[in-house]
């Protein structure tokens, strides 16, 4: 039990003597209705405030009962400002005899990683290059404009449609990587500017919800490849992942699908994902927006008007009505209304494959398991791997080939990952932490191999255990 008086509950009140807590007591407060966490040895009660957390209640709740210092530093570009909001939540400190890290984490490794981060800050590696992101956005817009011009000059024949679909799949994939930068607050110094441009890129270039992306993606970064905490490994019974989940499913005789064939139907599920993921994407012809209504009725929070995210939808709806009226008067289908469907079909297929392969190559082949309460460096390294650097790999993956550096420093601008990489490798070598890097082709093959291995574990447990 802690000793001493308690601090006042609101900022501005005179501070009483802080109460001291042990890790044993703090770790008990990791429930849905009772959440404490530690940042720089200070203990905060976030139970009531979690629902007002700008990053979502789940991402901060995943750190309940733990030392959240490194996660706090990783996600906030202005920690000093955020500490003002934490002040009213302060209830005490770690007892003087308690280590700064919980659960027997290596204190020297943790300290060395924080020193590495400070070194990166001193090297200005968290400062974005405006020209890089301006040119990046420019090449996306150029592809969109090119698509419009091709429709205007060459019509909507099949050859033009295929070329258009490839151009649009490329621009949409690159817009996906760009929104990722703004979503992680890695471009502007002010969070508000990052959020504004993030909503523009997501809502107007991608046609998706920025809030929904943030809610899921920050959880992934906080607890990558951790069941029940990382939504990216919650595959809704389509796949079994890692080494423990397949055995667990097998022993319980759970068979939602024939998981021993998941490495084969993985390719088929991406056709479904083509419809699910890319149906939220914009295309140059506004008539295509007629396909988005059912998707958005589920994806956008009810408190957010559709027009807030997707003003072009209303123009598309107006033109759709106009085209249908012309069709009725002419008594024949309009070529204009059929062209976007051809572009949509091919474009969705191409971009969804691009998206799935790139986003899964760094994580699915890695360790996927339950919570093990590792330190920040070790937990991120166990769940991520890098892809070899090249100009093409950097562009094709949106620098997600530097997934290790991105996960360790999510607010670092991507064009600086290669600069911090040697420091990360050196630290990993010092403590024997595996730093995995592989060619792009092998990374794709490893996805299939990992699914095959997990499927075999499930079948063995299902039949024999």
UniProtKB/TrEMBL annotation:
Coiled-coil spans are none
Which compartments does it reside in? Membrane
Name of this chain's protein: FADS2 desaturase
Which family does the entry's similarity section mention? Belongs to the fatty acid desaturase type 1 family.
* Gene transcribed to yield this protein: Fads2
* Residue ranges of domain Cytochrome b5 heme-binding in the record: 18-95
Q: In which pathway does it act?
A: Lipid metabolism; polyunsaturated fatty acid biosynthesis
By its UniProt entry, which Pfam families does this protein fall under? Cyt-b5, FA_desaturase
One GO MF annotation is:
oxidoreductase activity, acting on paired donors, with oxidation of a pair of donors resulting in the reduction of molecular oxygen to two molecules of water
Cellular component GO terms, alphabetically? membrane
**Lipid bilayer topology:** Multi-pass membrane protein
